[in-house]
Amino acid sequence: MRRLVFLASLLALGQTAGLVAARADDAVEVKVGFIRAPHVRETISILDIPAEDDAIAGARLAVEDNNTTGRFLGQSFSIEDRLLKAGDDPLAAMNSLVEHGVSLLLVDLPAAQILALADAAKSRNILLFNVGAPNDSLREENCRADVIHVAPSHSMLADGLAQYLVWKQWKRWLLMKGSHSEDQLFADALRRSARKFGAKIVEERVYEDTGGGRRSDSGSVQTQRLVPVATQSAPAYDVLVAADESEVFAEYLPYRTFDPRPVAGSAGLKPLSWDPTHEQWGAIQLQNRFMKLAARRMNARDNQAWVAMRMIGEAATRTGSSDPKLLREYLIGPEFSIAAFKGQKQTLRPWNLQLRQPILLGDGRMIVSVSPQEGYLHQNSELDTLGLDQPETKCKLQ
User: Fold this and answer.
1) Residue 300 and residue 361: Cα distance in Å, rounded?
2) Structural domain for 165, as ranges
3) Does residue 281 share a domain with residue 139?
4) Residue after which a domain boundary falls, among 255, 272, 289
């Protein structure tokens, strides 16, 4: 009996050694590039000044996570950063990465530049992951078959907020929007959400950006005088909803409105893909690991980059390949899902390549709620109550 056990052990060791050798021979190197533009816009709060490693830090943590599994499967993952300066051409950055053997790209760029990259990459077997731009047009009339959207869209964020406000019976909204085009896009999404879930916008107001420093030109005394004037004489409303993607005025609104009302949207109660205060569903261990790596808390862009890299890692593990075509086929297929510490498995919408995901509602101190809210049902996935659903889409992937 002992001799048989000994022989069986030798056989097992031989099989293991052969498997390791085979994996070494079939080693897969997954090279990923990151093209990002610095967020240099001045912020109202000093706490919101972007870190130099904004977003890329999340991708680096995911590379470590991918390599933890990858080393047992003969796979290695790496990320090469391209931080653009003013006037730099994103296409030149993409070409440089491709010359280094990169065919998977994370991009944190404005919508127009993402489209330019997608069109240039169309015939080159390159797969892009949008980790920053929320524009609905990228998922709708301007959707591209080689762009996977990890960042939630404006409509998903607006729907997540609207569900909670309507659940609270705060159905009368005063909408205050900024004067920039990005502000208008979020305001459009908020209007659509109000119609979709039964809220009413009692009045819309525009806050004109007259320039000047966000912090240096607006002391607390001056702001205390200006904001009540900008918000007085409004029809009866339950909540002021702000659309301020340009970060010009919204953070001045809480506690300064003429009427004592809560603020939501771009300030106050914010809809987010991730928040530094999130700790449910095991998120605290991700937060702690990120803190150890970056010496700060994980923000939404960091998390979106982390999720994108983890999606690449999951697809490479399942397919045993780094080929963008094979990875894309797996990601849009029925077998793909990713656990991202938000209480539900996340999957891709195959009709526009948007990642389904819960929306966190945070006030800067803690998570107030998570959407979809209880009672909002869907025939396929409750997550599809957030954003434009398949029957509504204008997307024709090309």
Assistant:
1) 12
2) 155-272
3) yes
4) 272
Q: Are 30 and 73 in contact (CB under 8 A)?
A: no
Same domain, 187 and 334: no
Place of tokens 């022989």: 7
Residues 6+ apart with CB under 8 A from 357: 152, 156, 273, 340, 342, 344, 346, 383, 386
Q: What is the CA radius of gyration of the chain?
A: 23
How many domains is the chain built from? 2
CATH code (residue 116): 3.40.50.2300
Two tokens, residue 176: 């205050």
Cα torsion 228, 234, 239, 244 to 10°: value is -60
Would the pLDDT of 215 be above 70? no
Task: Measure the CA–CA gap between 112 and 110, rounded to whole angstroms.
Answer: 6
pTM beyond 0.70 = yes
Average pLDDT for the chain = 91
Residue 336 included in any domain: yes
The residue written with tokens 């809809």 in the block is 271
Q: How far is 12 from 311, CA to CA, in rounded Å?
A: 33
Instruction: Kindly state whether residue 167 falls inside one of the protein's structural domains.
Output: yes
Domain-located, residue 286: yes
- Per-residue pLDDT reduced to its tens digit, 189-200: 999 999 999 999
User: Do 245 and 298 share a structural domain?
Assistant: no
Long-range contacts for 254-263 (Cβ within 8 Å, ≥24 apart)?
Answer: 256/223, 256/224, 256/227, 256/228, 256/231, 257/227, 257/228, 257/231, 258/228, 258/229, 258/231, 258/232, 258/233, 258/234, 259/231, 259/232, 259/234, 261/174, 261/237, 262/170, 262/238, 263/239
Would you call 360 exposed, middle or buried from its count of C-beta atoms within 10 A (0-12, 13-18, 19+)?
Answer: buried
